Amino acid sequence: MEDDYFSSVYSWFDKCGIIANIRTHLRQNLVNTLKNRDASHKLGNSCPRSAKQYVYDLLIAEYLWNHNYFYTLSVFASEVPLMVDFNKQIKSKDNGAESKQKLQSDYVCHTLETLGIEPTNQKGKSIISDYAENDVPLLLSILKCIRMTDIEDCNKTQNQTTNQLNSQYVQTVEIKQNLTQELSKLTIARKKLIQQKDLFEAQLKQREIELKEQALVMKNQLLILQEKLNQAQKLIDMYSLKEKRINENKKQDDIKIMQKEKELSLREKILSQEAIRIAKEKNSYQQFKGDLKKLQDELLKVKREIPLSRKNCNLSVKDTETQTDFENYLLTRNEQSFLNLEKNDLGGLVSEQQSRIEQLTSKVVILSRKLEEKQLKGCRYLGLPLLVKNTNITNGASESSSTEDILQDAKMRLRRLEEESLKADQYYFNFITNSS
Known about the structure:
This protein has 436 residues and is mainly alpha-helical. It has helices at 2-16, 18-35, 37-44, 51-66, 70-79, 105-114, 122-133, 138-305, 314-382, 387-435. Helix 9 (314-382) packs antiparallel against helix 10. Keywords: Coiled coil.
């Protein structure tokens, strides 16, 4: 049907002159293109094509030839530089009609190899057999084989996916069973952990309570220790203050004692000077007494030497005697008044010295007692020996003994002066009575 339709259409176009016009137009276009220098330059300088491009051109030409697109094939052949030979026409087994031309087997193998299909492979063999057995162009057989292979690949992939899904399902079932078992184990373990957690929480609470109690006890102990430390610090501060005060008082007492010692030394010097003066006065009094004795001896001698003849001159002698006695009386009276004054002065000095010495001794006793009390207090804290007190007491005793000796010497001297003054008075009265 197609051949008859094609021949009828071709004859109709030929009668109308359409085919001739098309051919003339094509030839004119070909001539014009060939005359153009740029096109000729481009065709002459065209780079060589690849093997795949020639194979593609061959497949298209074979497709056009198989479908009797001669005009299109002629145009395509003018663009393609290479043409190939086809096999001779062979008769089919069913009818005696001529079959269309096909490519040689080596061209088919070369085409498949360039396209990346092995002719010895199952895919290549199927393509070659399909091309040889059926009246189909090589391009369609290749596309058909590719489609079939794609379908097979899809089926294989689907089978693989189904197998994978089945295996995954089985695995998921197994995993689910394992998960259920693990979940049951985990629930049991969780219950155990919860029980252990409760036990641990109870133990921790009990331990926390015990630790809190211990912390409170420790805190109370720390507070007690802190109070004791504060008390000890206060005692240390008080002790240091007392020690400073004791040292200051000791220094002040030492200074006072030094001052008192200086005063006592000065008073001792004054008393020694007074004693020296009293000794000098005593010596002068003894000289005066010796002079009186000499005068008395002279008077006795005079009385013995005066003869009885001089009794007549008693008046004159009595006058002279009364004069001499009066002069002697005046002298003795003056000396006695002077001695009394000195005696009173010495008594006042002695009383003053005694009062001062008593005051000093009382102060020394008070100071020694204070020192003893302070040293006793210091010894309670330090446990020091009471050596300083004994030295101070001995010094005070020695000082008091020295002052008492001085007072006793002064008293003895005053007594002697009083006795000598009494003796002088008695001697004077005796002399007056004897003279009368």
